[in-house]
Amino acid sequence: ANKSYSGSYQGMRWRVWIDEERFCAAVWPQPWNFAHTDESEKTTERFDLTEEGLSEAESWIAAQYEQQLARWKEAKNHPTF
Fold it and tell me: Which domain does 40 fall in, by range?
């Protein structure tokens, strides 16, 4: 079963997955997917594997969007190719 969820919003890509009994979350600028983005471009955090931990991961992703707004706007306006 797929144990990861991902999406994008206004130049920011995100992913949440389970690794070693914890939720992990990452954000990075578009255009590439998680596997094709250099690690230096990703911001990651880990959370408890609980309902509260998942809620914290969701809040963290939203906060990353606000905190790095200029980064996402630049990525959104940058041509893919």
Answer: 4-77
